[in-house]
Structure formats: C-alpha cells, structure tokens
## 1
Amino acid sequence: MSVNMDNMVKVFERPRSLTDAQFSYCPGCHHGVVARIIAQTIDELGIQERAVIVASVGCSVSMYEWFRCDGAQAAHGRASAVATGIKRVNPNLIVFTYQGDGDLAAIGTAESIHAANRGENITVIFINNQIYGMTGGQMAPTTLVGQWATSCPDGRNAELAGYPIRFAEMIAQLNAPVYVTRQALYDQKRIMSASRAIKKAFQCQVEGKGYSLVEMLTNCPTNWRMSPVETNSRLMNEVVKTFPLGDLVDRV
Amino acid sequence: MAEAAICAGCRAYFGYPITPQTELLEYMAAHMPAAGGAFVQAESEVAAINMCYGASAAGVRTMTSSSSPGISLKMEGISYLAAADLPCVIINVARGGPGLGNIAPAQGDYFQATKGGGHGDYRMIVLGPASIAEAVELVMLAFDLADKYRVPAMVLSDGMLGQMMEPVVLPEHISLDSLPGRPWALTGARGRGPNAVTSFAMDPVDLSRINTERQGRYRQIEENEVRYRETETSDATIIVVAYGTVARIARTTVKMARSQGIKLGLVQPITLWPFPYAPLRALSSRVSTILTVEMSAGQMVEDVRLAVADRADTPFYGELGGLVPTPKDILREVMHNVR
C-alpha cells in the first residue's frame, strides 16, 4: 500500500526538549514515559532555555543526557540540596530534580525533607517504583510489606524492615510545600492526569509560588520479574492500596 | 575569613553550626544577603557541601566552612566537586579528634585534607594560614586558585585562629565583572547547547581520559603554586618545619634560639598541597637536622621525610588532644637535637 505523505498531518512527535539520545531503560519501564511528559511540559511552558535538571543516582543517573537543557548530576540522595544551591544563586532558572525512591526517601531523606520544609522554589519528580532498579532489585524504603526483593528474599518483613514510607504524606504535614501529589502511569487516564500534575508542578515554580513534588508510582518489569502489562495490573490493584493516588497539598 | 570571602567575590555560602567555626556561619548570615549573595543554614554538613556543588555549578564563587567532624561529612561532596571540576572554597577550623574529640586547636586533619579524605583519585589545594592576616590573604588566594584550576581549595586553619582577634587590613571588594568567565556553568541553554556538570562516566576509556586531563592540571598546580616561608634559614644548621598556628609559635622559638647562639631556622609550608618538597630537599643537604612540629601524632612529617630522605635527621615533636606547644616547648625539642 502506498501512502501519500503530503496529505498527512503530524499529530505526535518527539518533544523538542528531548535530545536524540536513546533512553537506556529496560523495555516497558515507566521512566521513559515520565521523561517524555517532563520534556513535553518544558516545551509547552517554553522554559527549555531556563530549565536545569538535577539527575540523581540510580536508573536516572544519565537523565541530563536525554534533555536539551542544562543539567547537573548529584551525589546519591543530594539532588534537593544541589537544586537548592542552583536555584538560590539564580532564581530565574527552572530547577527540577528527578529522583528514585532509594535516592529521595532513603539516603537522601534529610536533604529531601528540608528542601521541602524551606519551601525551595523547585520541582521534585519522585519516582516510586518500590525497588532499587540500577543495583538489581534490592528492598527500597517504599517496598510493600511482603514484596520480594533480592535483599528481602522472604518478602519485606515489617517487624525487621518497617513499613513502606509514604513520602508525599510526610511532607504534606509541612507548611511550606505548595503542591504535593501522587500520580501513576498504569493506564491512559492516569498518564493524562500525571501530565497535568507535572505541568502544574512546573507552573507553580515558574510563577514563583514555591516547592512542588510529584510522586509517581512506576514499575520495574526487570526487577519485579513481571511483564510490563503485569506490572500495570499490580500497580492498579495492589500498589495504590499502600500509596493512594491524588493531590495531598494544593495551595496553588 | 568570612569578610575576606565576600571581598573575593563569594556570593554563596552554605554551612552548619559547629564549634569553633560557628562565628563564620553567623557572620555570613548577617552579611551575605547584604552583599547580594545566597546564604542557607543547611540541615547538615552533607547538605551544605552539596548546596555548594549546585551554586558553583550555577557559576558563582561559593564557600562552606566547618570544623573537623563536619569536614568528615563533607568529604563525599568534596570528591564530587573535584570530579565535576567545580571550584569551591572550604574552610576547616580544625579541632581535636578523632571522633567528637574536643573544641581545642589541633592539626590532626592534615592527612584528610592533603591525601584525599573522600574517595577516588583527586587532589585539593590546601592552604595553611598562621595568622588572621594570612587567613584573609589565603582565603582570597583560595578563590583565585580554585577558579584558575577548577578544583576545590581548602583553607586549613585551627581553633586557635578561629577564636582569635587581631587587627587586619581588609582588601577592596573585587569587582564581580573582573572574575574569569565560566562558560561551562549551568545558566540556561540559551544560544548554546546544553551544559552538563557531572562526575559520571560509565565507559572506562572516557573516565580514564577525563581523569588524565585532571591529573595534568594537578601537575601544573604542583609546578606553579608551591608557596612557603623561610625564616633565618640561610645560615641555619637546624630547621623547624611547622605550618599554621605552630609555625607562628615556632617563629618565637627561632628568636629565642638565635639569642642563645643556636642557628635555628624555620620553614613554614603555606601550601600543604602542593607540598614544598623541592625547597626542603635543597635545604636538607646543608643542615644536620630538620625537626617537624605539629599538633598531631605526626602527619606532615611524612611529607617532610619524603622530601629529606636520609640527607638529614628528621625527628618529630607533636602535641595531642588540643594541647598547644609553647615556644619554650619547641626550643626544648630543638636543644635535644642540637649536635
């Protein structure tokens, strides 16, 4: 069948704020979806020349290579402190961190909470996939009770390892954060909602309103040892029971 | 030292309270905002050094300060600063250690400062002031050298200097427009491609190339930036080597010894890295003894012995736990070693 290209209208394309570099994520991983949503948001808000990404340690370590904007790579857990330093000396920049659950809610707990408590005018994208992906599937602070991981081979035992940390709820107790929300990507409706949330979080910073955090429930097909479709079902049927979706703070 | 930093164009300071350097943090809290700079009292030393990483990456002269236990916490960040080629000034108002130790002056952080401290193959310029005037001068120099070579630089002082008051003539504020450009800084990708500040290079070939380039800058620093002060060394038969507060005390010892007819000289390393190996090596062939004095169990003495080898005797005298040697104490050790 021959197609006449002249009559075709492009309705979907690569966001301008993404480079041509290929993502290095595993097949079916949600990281790529989040990166795309962020890039689209940067395009829509017209902030590519002001945006600075602070990548963390983990599967997001090379994030700054995907984006056509300035970027820093932070030490493990320290992204919110690095973002603080950048934003404080140049408030005109739109600074966002992209951090996994081990980075933000374990080794970087102090930096993450205090940046939120100071109300730094930054945007934090928090990827909660309930496992350490890069190091090969160890228990995360967000791992569900009973969930298998290589460092809890009998499943997470709450008596020994405690319970999954609900970071969004924790910082929702603080006075300073302006927008705190938890979103997911397991179906089209959630992806649309997550896109709106990310845009709102960036908008918040552009308008100088203050700290915003989007916690994103995501998957890890490789280390959960499931197909991408199975991971979406698990997120929808199980994970949201521990991590309910929705806005926790909206002072925008 | 805080005012010297502002004079030098420092416009970002991040710190955490710890004795005996808290006055520095307090001064910055009061004066940095007025200078148009950023000040944050961080939640930890770890956070403070990483805020420095961000501010320096964004292109601004940046400083943090702390005292020994807090400097240990900054070591991760210093390794990252070095690896990302970010200039930054770190002041250590050193105190007694290890562990919590005490808040008295000490020099037990020499190894940490000059030999690494953090992980990986990196170097940090380390400057040792012996007075407030020198501290002012060396803080200014630290900013210039950090910018010139894109490396972190430490001013290694101690609790004596940190708690001392003495008159000093402050320099003029330098114009921020006169500072070297930072084309690599994260200022927004406008009219250019994206800039990245990173310490990450997955491919061993890439990391090897990056590290080799940085080592080349370290060799330049060793070649160009060695600084030291000699006192009464031209006819000396015995030399004391001391840095910082101890050098200042030993200067009195030199006068006392000379009045007794002992030909004592003093070498004060100003740059602890790069260490003045060559001048010590030159001196060692014409004196009998080179006595190292430190407020530690013997750290810089290892560098002195590297320089001197077996060309002269290299005894060591140290005080521990925050005790400070008097000029007489040092003279006594000199007398032990006079042939």
## 2
Amino acid sequence: MARYGMVIDLKRCYGCYACMLACKVTNHLPPNVFWSRVLKGESGTYPNVVRQALPVLCFHCEDPGCVKVCPTKATYKDEEGVVVIDKNVCVGCKYCMMGCPYGARYTVPEWKSYFPAGLPLSELEQFQKKAWEEKSGCGVATKCDFCSDRRKNGKEPACVAACPANARIFGDLDDPQGEVSQLVKQGRGFVLKPEQGTNPKVYYLPPR
Amino acid sequence: MRRYLHFLWACFRLSFVGDWRYHAWMTVLTVIALTGLYAYCQQLVHGLQTTGMTDQVSWGAYIANFTYLVGLAAAAAMLVIPVYVYRNLQLHDVVIFGELLAVSVIVMCLLFVNVDLGRPDRFMHLFWRFNFPLSMLTWDVIALNGYLLLNLHICGYLIYSAYCGRTPSKAFYIPFVFIAIVWAVSIHTVTAFLYVGLGGRPFWNSAIIAPRFLASAFAAGPSFIILTLQIVRRFTAHYVADDALLTLRRIVQVAMIMNIFLLGCELFVEFYTDTAHVASARYLYFGLHGRHALVPWIWTAVLFDLLALALLVLPASRGLPALNLACVLSIVGIWIEKGMGLIVPAFIPTPLGEIVEYQPTVNEILVCFGIWAFGLLLYTVFVRVSVPVLAGEITAPGARPAAGAH
C-alpha cells in the first residue's frame, strides 16, 4: 500500500495561485474556503529583498494532532496515510481545528452564494453546493484529502496537475526509487514546524 | 415510586408559588431564556455563521462561558470540603445550595457545549463513537456528566428524604459526597487539559493553566455563593449565619491571592523570556500589529481582580457591603480573564501567523444570555423548592418532618 506524500519546490513556485484555484474548483469549495493556499511574505532589507511564496495545505501528518483529539473518531488516517474526515460522524466541535498546528481545517456553516446576499444561487452554484454536500457537508470539519476522487481515477491531486512550474510533486513516500522520496533525500527536504512532532508528509525544498 | 412521583409533582407545583417579586424575576428570566432560544433557532437554521466565529478563531463566547462555568460548578467543593472534611458547622446548613448551584451550572455548561457544535443533531456520537482515552474532549464528557449525576443524586436524595420525613442514610450519600469532591477538582483539571494538550497553541501550552483554573474557580465560585446565600437569607425563611459568609470570604481571599500570584508567574514567563510564543499574550495585553480588541477587556479584568484582592485582604471586607463589592469584582474580573481572556487570544495570531480578530455577534450574545437566564431559572426553582422541603414545611402525605437533612 502506498504512503502518499508531496514535495513542494520553493525554488520553482512563483505564487501564481493556480493550485489554489484548481483546488477550489475541483472540490467545489464555498466562498472564503481554500483548502490549498499560497501565503506570501517578504524578507531582507533594501536592496536585498526577497519575496517568497509558500503554498500550504493539509500536511497529512504521520502523527496528526487532529486525529488524536477528535472525540468521535470522525477524522482518521486511511490505509494510504491520507488524513480524512468521515462527514457523517463529525459533530462539528472544531476541536481538531485547535489540534492542527497548521490551521489546515475549515468549517462551512452554510454554502452561500458568491453573489450579494438576497440573490438566489446560480445554476452552477446549485451544482457546486450539491457536490459539496455530497463530499464534505456543512457544519462539520473539512480539509484537503489529496483529491481522493481524482486519486480513485488514477489522477494526481488537482493542485499538482495545475501547477505550471511543476513545483509540486506527488507520489509514494515508501517507494525508494520514486521521485518524491528521491527529492526529499537529495534536495534537503524540510517540513514546517518540525518541533510539533507531527511528522508532516508534505515536504518543502528550500528556495535557494 | 408513587411517592417519588408525588414528590416531583409537589416540587413542580411549588415552583410556581411565590410573591410578586418571585414571579417578576421568573418572568424576566423566562423572557430572556426564550429570546436566547429564538436566537439559537436562527443559528440552527443558518449554522454557526450567525456567530462571530471563523475558521481562524473557531471557539468564542460559547466556550469562554463554558470554561468559566465549569469553575463555578467545581466551586461547590469549597462548601462541601469544610462541611464534610473539617466538620464546619456554619456551612452545614447551606452546603446544599452549593450542590444545587453545581447542578444548574453543569446544565449550563452542557448547553454551552451543545450550542457550539456545528452539527448538534449528532450530539449522541459523543457517546456512541467514543475516542477514549485519546481525546481530552471525551474525558470532559465523562467528567461533566459524572459530576452532574453525582450532584443530582446527592441533592435529590437529601431533599427527597426530607420530603419523606426520614433521616437520610449516610451510606447513600456520604461516599458520593467524597467522590464529588475529587470529581470537582477533576472537572476543572480535565477542562484545562482540553486546552493545555494542544501543542499548536502556545498560549495554552502551559502547565500552570490547570492550577490557575482551580484558583480562579475557587475565588469566583464561592463569591457567587456568598451573594446567593444573602439572597436566600433575604427572601426565604432559611437561616444563613454571617459566620458562614465569613468562612467563604476566607476561601475567596486565599483563592484570589493564589489566582493573582499564578497570573503574575504566567506573565513573567511570557514577557521576560519574550520568545515567539509571546505573540498571543502580547495581543491580549498590548495589541498586535494595530489590532487590540481584547486589550480594554483584559485590563478591566486585571483591575477588578486587583481591587477585589485589595478589598478581601482589608478588614473592611468583614462587613457585608465591602464583601459583596469584592465578590462582584471577583466574579466579573475572573469571567473576563478566564473566558474571553483565555480562549480567544490562543487563536490570535493563527498558527501560520495571520491575525483575525473575533467579536461575538448579537445573535451569539443572545444565545449566551439565554443560557445564563435558563441556568438562573433552574437554580431559582431548585432553591425555591428545596428551602421549604428541607425545613419540613412540605412533606409526603402521612410523613413527619425530619430534623435537618445534612
């Protein structure tokens, strides 16, 4: 069984937000919710200033804090190491949102229109709302699941497929010859907040 | 069983009997509780978007009130310990009011947890699909419900015994009283562990939170009971000695000193070390990057706590006016410090450094008021019913009034 993980090459990422949009469209995310985000920051002083993009998503940790704290076992690691949520069991206590040290979880009280309040949902929005309720649901915790629907069809996650710079590489971390594990080993792969002891499975390659 | 149903019916009928002040008080509470229920119905229809909570600040006024109230419930132990462990005679006749307070407050706690759920219709999953012992939330479910049952049993048994005109059998309640003492400490400790165990929230990641919780609970809780006992004394025939109030004053005094001391320790560690982890505390006390919604609140709390402490250590607080003022200051100060001052800042900044402030909505505030009103309504009914029953004024048909329940 595979143990999925991802490598994000910060040298290649130029913060175009294509991953963010691909995720939003694929997973029918409602307004204000982005399972995959791109943070941007600046460092240094003039004239040596660097602007860096940092894509973030659920890191599908090996020892996830969110799974430990869930009172109803609604969130768990599946057999491929992907942290998922059973939408029919989650009570919406939001404790997992506190347990996640990366702020990668979201709750959606109600699927609202993108257009001003009072307007009915458009046809596309109605379709998206229905798809959202089938997959994730309202009032419960939601998050990135490495595009489980796409993976079932043998495709890679939408953010990986959409990246124009090939900054995201997805694959099996247990495959020693695989690109992901090779990059982690050779490219000085690091994770965010290693001190949290959650052992994320999304690695970054340094920006320079 | 028939007699028990008679007892419940007598209690129910008694809860509607009182003078105009009683009816006015109950009417006001009912109106507020129903307004809260209406606000909650709005929340049920539209989800938690009717609250000020966001993905960044995902716990707010509901959990803040919950945390404070757990302390209030635990404080019943501060009446029970002097009576059952140290055989304090002054508190002997009033200990049941502390236990009844614990019952009402735990009901409020459970309501606050329920209204915070995104899917309250699945509440029963918290019992059926139990992630025990891993999730601290499951420990809290056990602790709170257990404490509710213990206190319900103790109060219910004593009041029912008085109603039946028989002396309560010690074997039926004394063991539970001692279990409840340990349980009272555990409910607040477990609630503290709910926060402390989260590595991603450095503001909560301090071992001192649990002792601080207990110290503040033992200051705010007995303060609330001091005020309540004076109301009981004023409006019912139940006798409450001044010495009982002064014994509670000593408890509040020591607990408040501990609370301020522990708060000082926490502030020293946060600000003297001045690591990256101080961001939340800095936001709370001084504001961060121009955002400072909680600053006036926390300084009000600190001021109230310090004023209460000053009053409590002065001999003036042996008189009731100064003692009452100190109690009000303790209750409000600790409500702010332990509610909004402890829960909200842990989310600001977020683990990835973003700053999103929290402000409760009107709907959310109405729900909070509704739950408080319902809790007070419940407590008023409990006191209204228990006073005449324990005094032997209301008894089962054919029963003789028993002398003193406890």
